[in-house]
Write a structure and sequence with these properties.
The chain contains eleven helices and 18 strands. The protein is an alpha/beta fold and about 375 residues long. Helix 4 links the parallel strand 2 and strand 3. Helix 8 crosses helix 9 and helix 9 packs parallel to helix 10. The structure holds pyridoxal-5'-phosphate.
């Protein structure tokens, strides 16, 4: 069945023609059960290839929490990427395809005992910490661990800040590094996270300057570190243009050359930047109504079964089937009976028909991985196309 979608000029800035055609022809050719998350493998491969290219001595560890679909893991594994995980649940899909322990790191600063035991047994060597208690836990369970301290850095300009939960200031950082060494661990380096969907180039500058101060303090104590783990944060386009990953990386690379000893290992942990714009939701209009002067559009994916980030402020772009008619302002809601299940407000769209398909762009990251079956609505299947 051929569907005609209403493609607007601004859509072209958010998704390439090739990628859009790929999604549309897949929907035409297959009887896809809706809702579904379609992942464009070509786009994914391109992103995974490009990331890290402009930072010398770098290694890319894909942050599995962004999208843990087996198809995504298998593809990235075949491409030779490494992985960042936070839990035994995230280790399982890697173990299933036999990813070696030296291609896995764990940067969650507070880990469960069960995960630490499982990671130790698997042979994982790199761990983050930001407290004495965590050093004690790691020293007891993984005595030969290499550890990096999580530094707190500004998250301004990131649409999904992560920093308030984790990280220490420089003074605490230096005592923790000494403490880790005392406990027999190998304090190899420093990590930070500028915040997810970071659209502010200067966040990385601020973070690197701060890390440099701590790095030098450790060196003065005779602890020569070797790993600078710059975390994730690379942005993707949702409804507006964002700074290019290439530009971000060239800026980071220049600063690392300027501030840090040559030859150190740089770890990058992108999640969203790898998978975010490779995924499109294909979902269905299940209802329309007018309440007061608001036009409500109900679709079969919502806050609970796959669009959780909408409540944190991520605004998505929607493409509807072309049904003619004029545009209206819509409040878009998910399928559950919960009042929180509102994805967006003030979205200008041509009025779609009940049962028609809606495409939601840039849904590859933090969608399915956040989804629950609340209210009995199934988590959409992920299809690699
Ligand atoms: C979530 C997370 C990432 C990935 O962040 P993105 O913004 O998706 O790139 C990387 N490292 C750590 C420690 C994280 O918690």
């Amino acid at each position: 069945m051929t569907r005609i979608f209403k493609i607007e000029p601004f859509h072209r800035e958010l998704i390439s023609k090739a990628s859009l055609l790929n999604f549309l022809s897949f929907l035409d050719a297959n009887d896809v059960e809706l809702p579904a998350l379609l992942m464009d493998t070509e786009r994914l491969r391109k992103k995974a290839n490009a990331i890290g290219k402009n930072i010398r001595n770098s290694r890319v560890f894909y942050a599995v929490k962004a999208n843990a679909a087996p198809g995504v893991i298998e593809l990235l594994d075949h491409m030779g990427l490494s992985f960042e995980i936070a839990s035994d649940g995230e280790l399982e899909p890697l173990a299933r395809v036999g990813v070696a322990a030296d291609r896995i790191i764990t940067s969650n600063p507070v880990k469960t005992f069960k995960f630490l035991r499982r990671a130790a047994e698997y042979g994982i060597k790199y761990y983050a910490y930001d407290s004495k208690d965590e050093v004690d836990k790691i020293a007891a369970i993984v005595p030969d661990a290499k550890v990096y301290v999580r530094l707190s850095v500004p998250n301004e300009g990131s649409e999904w800040p992560l920093s308030k939960k984790f990280g220490v200031e420089i003074d605490d950082g230096i005592s923790l590094i000494s403490y880790a060494a005392q406990k027999g661990l190998d304090p190899v380096g420093i990590t930070f996270h500028v915040g997810s969907q970071c659209t502010n180039l200067y966040n990385w500058d601020n973070a690197l300057y701060k890390a440099k101060v701590l790095w030098d303090m450790a060196a003065q104590k005779g602890i020569n570190m070797r790993v600078l783990n710059i975390g994730g944060g690379y942005p993707v386009k949702y409804t507006k243009n964002v700074v290019d990953i290439e530009e971000i990386e060239k800026n980071i690379d220049g600063l690392i050359r300027e501030l840090f000893p040559s030859g150190i290992d740089v770890f990058i942990e992108p999640g969203r930047g790898v998978v975010g714009d490779a995924g499109v939701y294909a979902c269905q209009v299940i209802g329309k109504s007018k309440r007061g002067d608001e036009n409500w559009l109900h679709i079969d994916v919502g806050v609970f079964n796959g669009l959780m980030e909408s409540i944190g402020g991520i605004k998505y772009c929607y493409i509807t089937e072309d049904a003619g008619g004029s545009k209206k302002n819509w409040t878009i809601a998910g399928p559950s009976c919960d009042g929180f299940d509102v994805i967006d407000r003030n979205v200008m769209l041509q009025e779609p028909e009940i049962g028609s398909v809606v495409l939601i762009l840039s849904c590859g990251a933090y969608t399915i991985s956040y989804a629950s079956e609340f209210n009995g609505f199934a988590i959409p299947k992920t299809l690699m196309i």
